[in-house]
């Protein structure tokens, strides 16, 4: 049994995928990017916008950041690692989720960062 999770508080999918899918008590969230023109080009602003959008999708599924068990961060430039860590870390006061961070050649819409998460209720 799966349920599609969608909120207008986060950007709609830009392709044939859902913002998130709830399967049982596990939420699989698609990679989130900052589509806000004001945030584009500023890694800190992009990361904050992404994390806020993740929060909106989590809320739509009846969850919050504490429900995240795994994150994947994709960076255009690994030199942005410290900035991303600072922003990302501010959303987890204790027991942060498991995570990997990788540098990639290119991201959708030429953004600097994309983050996906798995959360469990």
TrEMBL record:
InterPro entries: RidA (IPR006056), RutC-like_sf (IPR035959), YjgF/YER057c/UK114 (IPR006175). It holds the Pfam family Ribonuc_L-PSP. This is Rid family detoxifying hydrolase. It comes from the Bacteria. Keywords: Hydrolase. Transmembrane segments: none annotated. Belongs to the RutC family. One of its GO terms (molecular function) is hydrolase activity. The keyword Hydrolase applies. It comes from Emticicia soli. PANTHER family: 2-IMINOBUTANOATE/2-IMINOPROPANOATE DEAMINASE RIDA, 2-IMINOBUTANOATE_2-IMINOPROPANOATE DEAMINASE.
